[in-house]
């Protein structure tokens, strides 16, 4: 049985039926099944794992830091639709006023890569 509230978190992610099957049978998930049920975003070969992780981190690091931080907080906080909608609206209003938002728009207009400063 999963510890650390794993059954509740897995149920929210995968649904009650699949979690019951996994917990009741004790069957492990292979990579392809974990991918097909949405437990993981992608599957890569073991020898490519480090490079794939670095590439993903680099893609995220190229985004506006404040916007990424706000998006993460809104996603993590949003359990109910009303709460999530409110938080998302607030986050959007705030992130639109940052220097990074201005830099992103300016870079797009000038057809160049943005230089974000986390401000």
Describe this structure in words.
Keywords: Lyase. GO terms for molecular function: lyase activity. It holds the Pfam family ECH_1. One of its GO terms (biological process) is fatty acid beta-oxidation. Belongs to the enoyl-CoA hydratase/isomerase family. There is one protein chain. The protein is mainly alpha-helical and 119 residues long. It folds into two domains: 6-59, no CATH class; 64-109. 65% of the residues lie in helices and 0% in strands. It has seven helices and no strands. The protein has helices at 6-14, 16-25, 31-36, 49-61, 65-77, 81-95, 99-109. Helix 1 crosses helix 2 (16-25). The longest helix has 15 residues, at 81-95. The chain is flat, with a radius of gyration of 19 Å.
How would you briefly describe this protein structure?
The chain is mainly alpha-helical and 119 residues long.
Tally the beta strands: 0
The helix-strand sequence is HHHHHHH
Distance between the termini: 44 Å
Shape: flat
Radius of gyration, in angstroms, nearest whole number: 19 Å
Task: Give a short account of the largest sheet.
Answer: none
The SS-based structural class is mainly alpha
Give the strand content.
under 5%
Helix content range: 55-70%
- How many domains, as an integer? 2
Continuous helix count: 7
Mean pLDDT: 83
Uncertain spans = none
Keywords: Lyase
Pfam family, one: ECH_1
Protein name: Enoyl-CoA hydratase
InterPro entries: ClpP/crotonase-like_dom_sf, Enoyl-CoA_hydra/iso, Enoyl-CoA_hydra_C
């Amino acid at each position: 049985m999963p510890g650390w509230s794993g059954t509740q978190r897995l149920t929210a992610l995968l649904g009650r039926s699949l979690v019951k099957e996994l917990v009741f049978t004790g069957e492990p998930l292979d990579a392809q099944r974990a991918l097909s049920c949405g437990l993981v975003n992608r599957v890569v070969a073991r020898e490519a794992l480090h490079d794939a992780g670095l590439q993903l981190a680099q893609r995220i690091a190229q985004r506006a830091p404040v916007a990424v931080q706000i998006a993460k907080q809104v996603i993590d906080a949003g359990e109910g639709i009303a709460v999530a909608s409110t938080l998302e609206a607030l986050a959007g209003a705030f992130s639109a006023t940052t220097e990074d938002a201005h830099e992103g728009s300016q870079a797009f207009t000038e057809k160049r890569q943005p230089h974000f400063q986390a401000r």
